[in-house]
Amino acid sequence: MAVPTITSIDPNTGLTRGDNIIKISGTNFRLPPPPPSTGYLGGDQQKTVSVKFEGQESAWAYSASATMILARVPEYRGPHDIAYPVSLDVRVANLDDSGLEIPGENVTEVDGYDVDRPSLAVESYFQRVIRALQHVFKRHVHPHVYVTVSRDAPSSALDDQRLVADAPALYLTGPRTPINRFDSINREEGEIDPGDPTQYYRRRYPVTVDMDFVLEIVAKSSRQLYGLIQSTHLLFRDVTEVRVTDDPGDDPVNPTGTYKEYEILMPWEFPVDVNNTPNPSDLFTASAGVRIRGVHIDEEAGNIIERGWIVDATSTEVQPMTIGG
After folding, report:
1. What is the mean pLDDT of the chain?
2. Can you give the pLDDT at residue 154?
């Protein structure tokens, strides 16, 4: 009887969604029989080991050698109302030619693998602005609205397979963030540097920017395309501002949070002569520009973080910035 052993599991941690591949090192793992010398065209080899995580069996486990198993971690389906990370027992068993466990040929590594919930990142204020704009289009034009702010994302809507599959749909690319001095709450263009007020003079940066997007409409027919263009025109006729919520719960007087309203407009509209000729994807497209004006750079109203100093734009107070404070 060849009783297997486990010496290490690498990696020994992962997220609750599973699906990652781990390497189990040990001894006496049963190997699959060698493939036929002739006529073998490839394919799955016989399963000779079973790997379970707290009773949940791996859908794919393969003994690469007598001392190494590769296994795919299943999704964690235990209780979720507990503290994380959760430690799982990892059980390895050798299987016979019928796929049944060989009695006595198994080993369990107690608490051999830990699962944890994915951490949630705090949403930035810019993300809330973009989400608010996306919601406006979903509500007033069409429910299929895609936004990309990644430099690696497709530059054209027709390169995004999600959007092409869901056409008709809208695609927002951007944003570019040019300076907006008109809507800035700055009172002065420059002020004495607090580090050495006798010698240094500096320019203050604006605290608001515009957010410029390219809006592309993708449709399966010219009729669909013109219908969505018309709906977009009506949107910008009837809705002139986008409402963006602040972080709720920070204000004890108003625990549900507050909001700001920013003007939205189309600095350049759809061309009059929209191309009616089907493109290679058999889709019809049109594009326009969308702008949100005067978006606050800072998340705390009036504070400008610059050159290691915090400047309160609503008063003359200046104080050094404390890292991590």
Report:
1. 76
2. 52
Are 104 and 159 within one domain? no
Could you tell me which residues are beta bridge partners of residue 61? 71
Domain's final residue, options 65, 99, 116: 116
10 Å CB burial of residue 228 (0-12, 13-18, 19+) is buried
DSSP secondary structure string for all residues of 204-251: PPPSEEEEEEEEEEEESSHHHHHHHHHHHHHHHHH--EEEEE--TTS-
Q: Ramachandran region of residue 198, left (φ > 0), alpha (ψ -120 to 50) or beta?
A: alpha
Amino acid at 197: P
Total number of domains constituting the chain: 2
Alpha-carbon distances of 69 from 26, 57, 126, 201, rounded to whole Å: 8, 14, 46, 66
What pTM did the predictor assign? Answer: 0.50
Residue 296: burial class (beta carbons within 10 Å; 0-12, 13-18, 19+):
buried
Domain hosting 287: range is: 125-298
Output the CA–CA distances (angstroms, integers) from residue 44 to 32, 73, 136, 247, in the order listed: 10, 19, 50, 53
